[in-house]
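Reviewer 2 asked us to include a model.

Predict the structure of this chain.
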Amino acid sequence: MKNVIDTISNATHLSCSQCSRVYDIEKLHTFSPCCNKPLVTNYDFKDVFAKEDLIGREQTMWRYAEMLPLFNSKNKVTLGEGMTPILPLGRLANRYGYDYLAVKDEGLNPTGSFKARGISMAVSKAVEHGVQECVVPTAGNAGGALSAYCAAAGIKATIVMPIGTPKMFQDECKHYGAELFLVDGLINQCGKVAGEIQQKTGAFNMATLKEPYRLEGKKTMGYEIAEQMNWILPDVILYPTGGGTGLLGIWKAFQEMIQLGWIASTKLPRMIAVQTTQCTPIVDTYNNVIQDSDSYKMSIANGLSVPHAFGEDMIMRVLKESNGSAIAVSDQQILAGVAEISSSEGILISPEGAAIWEALKMLTRSESIRTDENILLLNTGSGYKYMENLIPKGY
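Predicted model (structure tokens):
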């Protein structure tokens, strides 16, 4: 049996997600200069990594080290992220007649969200490349995660977030010692400020999909889903989609596991992207509706308040390849969803997680999802961090 600590990554090169042009993985990159699109990490599948090699490994995302792009384990920056549980939602399943309904609860990660995965991987690679300062535009959770992991790595973190972000997220960054900038606007305005800071200070920009490695950390959700479900994937996965890295990562993991021989290509889930009616760029594109990004507003689901996803083309490909779809729910529905899940299952779910529950009910009523299908929800964060958004609105 292989030992993870001694394992060398099977990563071989980076490639442009648009034209597949190859880039040297040994060098520090942001996004592809050829097409101005995200870069993706490629692997060698000749030296097959067997499922059996996972037995006895650490219960973190780093158990899949061969399929992660870190070349020296001494550069690993970890707080124990990954291997979050898949919890059955038995009361809700009985109430609504679902045969199998479960949630993968990413709120149990360090810093309270799935962002810990991507940031752990990206900061580890930053350390490997000698980066001394990172900057990120964020709707909330990514800022807290980058602050924590940069603190653990001993490098500077600069966080740029909307001024309307709950104070909990702001205070979190400050406690980790990060420098915090508040911007009057949504995350796209924060992105512009982060770019200016990058130009001025030389800080490495960790913006969603504008560097290659947050995607690699997020994809471990897909590996875990397969392993935790005994290598039989659900029929449908509902995912709250802002920047879309998690949805893309899960699908990337499935494609890699097909090449590894771990799962069958004939039984892949439909991927459902869920947004809020306050901010619907992916839903608009999916429905061929002309986007009016100026009309998009901040939602109580901060992570879904993303007016433009840098990886939108990639998201559309996943929805098409998986025979999936995109749907939006209102903030009022989200509030009701948080209350219903919390009181029924004892999980204080994030607004983003509540959004997918409300979307599931809508898709069930329209018969787009059947009650006899195996359904998996992805809760991307802890509801405890959003109480400021919930309480003033009557929760």
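Confidence is low (pLDDT under 50) at residues 1-5. The chain has three domains: 4-75, 86-110+218-393, 115-205. We have added this to the supplementary material.
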